[in-house]
Design goal:
The chain is an alpha/beta fold and 321 residues long. It has one domain: Rossmann fold (3-Layer(aba) Sandwich). It contains nine helices and twelve strands. Strands 6-7-8-3-9-10-12-11 form an eight-stranded mixed beta sheet, sandwiched between helices. It has a four-stranded antiparallel beta sheet with strand order 2-1-4-5. The radius of gyration is 21 Å and the shape is globular. The model has no long low-confidence stretch (mean pLDDT 91).
Length: 321
């Protein structure tokens, strides 16, 4: 059985007129998304800024309430649970946030930050037992346990992200949503954090939904990849297959932007015209057709389905071969 199974998930945000006005439109942030994650697997999620990646991740951990669809986590549909019912289920699924500077409370020491979920979920019978657990978690992520009484402003960005990882690990989750955990860090620190996440996965068999906009990072850490555009999944498959033989024009454009050193194998850069359309009023037919270099009249009226192009490799394009 899959650890996580998302079925036809939709997230809508109302656009209101006036302070107490009725909703005049809806932002379609996530539009009919389905996928699964197996125990101990890393699923990469990639796309441009504003495509709905973070909203999807937050909906999975129920920081945002879905508008429709289901989220089956460890055999239970958590999309229909109340906030009170969700509290105990949060031990199963945790989140690492993108910004290591704003995701930590500046008023709490890092020991208090990591200890908070232990108190909420009643892990550690005594303060001494919780202190030992905090020291263990700091050591696991490569920090000195003696620093537990220090405050977030006394740490670098990479160290703060390690603290965020320790906080996520505190309740021993089976799934962690990593929302661009390395995008705000220097390249050398990015490598350290990615290596740490991979080591933790081998030791604890934790699964990741790894959200990023860098396909090179996604290919390195993920077993499977999903490519998202305007709230929809347009391509998904094994990481190597998607990166080396992309079938959707949007994926091809993303991969062409990845820097390459070798001049002989350098790809031709694909420049997409225009901007991502408004998610309030997405285009009819294929949502990518206004920017697609191979679009024809059919693409403006006939929405393509996500179909299998190669073994376990799916693309949502009429011309994917």
């Amino acid at each position: 059985m899959s650890l996580l199974e998302v079925r036809n998930l939709k997230v809508r945000f109302p656009v209101r007129q006036g302070l107490f006005g009725r909703a005049r439109a809806f932002v379609k942030a996530v539009d009919d998304v389905s996928f699964t994650i197996e125990p101990g697997e890393t699923l990469g999620l990639v796309g441009e800024s504003g495509c709905g990646k973070t909203t999807l991740g937050r909906a999975i951990v129920r920081l945002i309430k879905p508008s429709a669809g289901s989220i089956w986590l460890a055999g239970e549909d958590i999309a229909r649970l109340s906030a009170a019912q969700m509290r105990s289920r949060r031990r199963i699924c945790q989140m690492i946030f993108q910004d290591p500077f704003t995701s930590l409370d500046p008023r709490l020491t890092i020991g208090q930050t990591i200890g908070e979920p232990l108190e909420i979920h009643h892990l550690g019978a005594t303060p001494a037992a919780r202190a030992r657990r905090i020291a263990e978690l700091l050591a696991v992520v490569g920090l000195d346990p003696a620093q537990a009484q220090r405050y977030p402003h006394e740490f670098s960005g990479g160290q703060r992200q390690r603290i965020g990882i320790a906080r996520a690990l505190a309740v021993e989750p089976r799934l962690i949503v990593c929302d661009e955990p390395v995008s705000a860090l220097d390249v050398s620190v990015q490598a350290q954090i990615i290596n740490l996440l991979q080591d933790l996965q081998r030791e604890r068999a934790v699964a990741y939904l790894f959200v990023a906009h860098d396909l090179a990072v996604i290919e390195h850490i993920s077993r499977r990849v999903m490519v998202m555009y305007l709230g929809r999944i347009v391509e998904t498959g094994p990481a190597k297959s998607v990166v080396q033989t992309p079938r959707h024009p949007y994926t091809q454009a993303l991969i062409s932007a990845v820097p390459q050193i070798d001049l002989e194998t350098r790809r031709q850069r694909i420049i997409l015209p225009g901007e991502i359309p408004s998610p309030i009023d997405p285009p009819q037919g294929c949502p990518f057709h206004p920017r697609c270099p191979i679009a024809v009249a059919r693409c403006q009226t006939d929405p393509p389905s996500l179909r299998e192009i190669a073994p376990a490799h799916y693309a949502s394009c009429h011309f994917a071969q």
